[in-house]
Amino acid sequence: MTQQRGNRDRAPAQGAKRAAPTVVGPLGPLTATPPERLFTPAALRRAWLAVKRTRGGAGIDGMTIQKFEASLEQELAQLHEQLVSGVYRPRPVGRVLFPKPNGGLRELGLWALRDRVAQRAVYDIMAPPFEAIFLPCSFGFRPGLGVQDAILRLQHYRDQNLHWVVDADIKDCFDSIATEPLLRLVAERVQDPLLLAYVKGWLTAKIFNSADGLPEEAGTSQGSVLSPLLANIYLHQVDRILVEQKLALLRYADDLVICCQRKSEAVQALATLEHVLAQWSLQLSPRKRDIRHFTTGFEWLGHFFVRRECYRL
Fold it and tell me: Is 268 exposed, middle or buried (0-12, 13-18, 19+ CB in 10 A)?
């Protein structure tokens, strides 16, 4: 009784096996590492192939995937030299607005292609230490996990008689993440100074066409290869607090549900969620902060749940 729709996942290599990066180390913090071991030619080639698969457009420099590939060896060699020597700096970022499915506009950063390749190389290095600590309640933008995993977990909670559901998402999540707290969280598990400098450089890269013409920083706005991982690093703090309070939380990026046995518990869970988000300078979207019940039905991640049925929209 399900109908197919496009996959919502947009994570790097979502649901696919990825080649291991050159430096993974133990699943503890990543300590200082010689840059030539971090940014090997093979690592940059893997990063390029991952970016190529996304078929993104050109950034401010007009460099397309086709042009980059036409002089691939030269482009990768130049990027390798810049990253290893520490002189790499991101180019200014363009910004476009596109409509959200439920109304409003979402901002998308247009990064230069070489910046996206560099970000992907850093993603491959950074992701394993953080994947080691992310909680099972988090499903979005994670290797080997996706929408169907989240749906199955929600059905599991339903079958445990947790029929009252807090259904919410975070208002302008990617654009609301505070840079300095995020950098502190990144530094807890990425202790290599050069990697941290590059992450900070991307977060503070300048938007060249801001709406009001005033200087503005890119932050974790969508469009960056690293933004999904950085958002999960930030929201992991919210996950941790809510799970410690024994709440049946499921989160897919900024879209989440909390399953409860009684309506009074759902009301309290919603208040707790808002309080925890406020501690991290986040708030729920007024368009979606509801308490639902499986008997009356609700939508989550492109699926409609009603009683014991699940329909793919």
Answer: middle
